[in-house]
Amino acid sequence: MGFVGDTLDSIRSMQIRQVLTQIISLGQLLLTHFLAILIDKVVILSVDSAGCMIVTSALIIWKGLMVVTGSESPVVVVLSGSMEPGFKRGDILFLHMSKDPIRTGEIVVFNVDGREIPIVHRVIKVHERQDTAEVDILTKGDNNFGDDRLLYAHGQLWLQQHHIMGRAVGYLPYVGWVTIIMTEKPFIKYLLIGALGLLVITSKE
């Protein structure tokens, strides 16, 4: 039960919206990879077994990444140009969340109360409260004129540790455009899924 039990406990502890968001994001990121493999090789699988293998593999990979990185969302896609020239729209970021304190200058991905899409920006100020020892964090996009206080929840001036999803520790340029295109133009996503299913069916002996 060890790994399976930990996985189920982890999923139960997460909000439904977080689980769905992660599954959708992971599926979109893995779709191109699996499609390339299927095109390159003759796959002798039934639709049911192929679907089960893809879903199982995706869950195992995602859970493994969560454990290794310490982040609930180990891979994110840059959706805007606010961090140019360092990161451009469509880049994929790899996150890691350690117990080390957040420092000024680090690039972090964070959630904002009331917003579903996480944001990747740079930490420009860190303030530790003397009375509670809590850390206040202020962020800003490298390509933006002002800090992010207008993006935070109404009346919120600082981020806290629980808002931080992870630090950016690596990236792949442009790979995330697949996710952006399929999100902005859903019919392309459905075409790819249909092509994947058709390829699996026609590949059976």
Automatic annotation (TrEMBL):
The keyword Transmembrane helix applies. It is found in: Endoplasmic reticulum membrane. It holds the Pfam family Peptidase_S24. Its main location: endoplasmic reticulum. It is a single-pass type II membrane protein. Residues 62-128 form the Peptidase S24/S26A/S26B/S26C domain. One of its GO terms (molecular function) is serine-type endopeptidase activity. Its EC number is 3.4.21.89. NCBIfam families: sigpep_I_arch (TIGR02228). Belongs to the peptidase S26B family. PANTHER family: SIGNAL PEPTIDASE COMPLEX CATALYTIC SUBUNIT SEC11. This is Signal peptidase complex catalytic subunit SEC11. The lineage of its organism: Eukaryota, Viridiplantae, Streptophyta, Embryophyta, Tracheophyta.
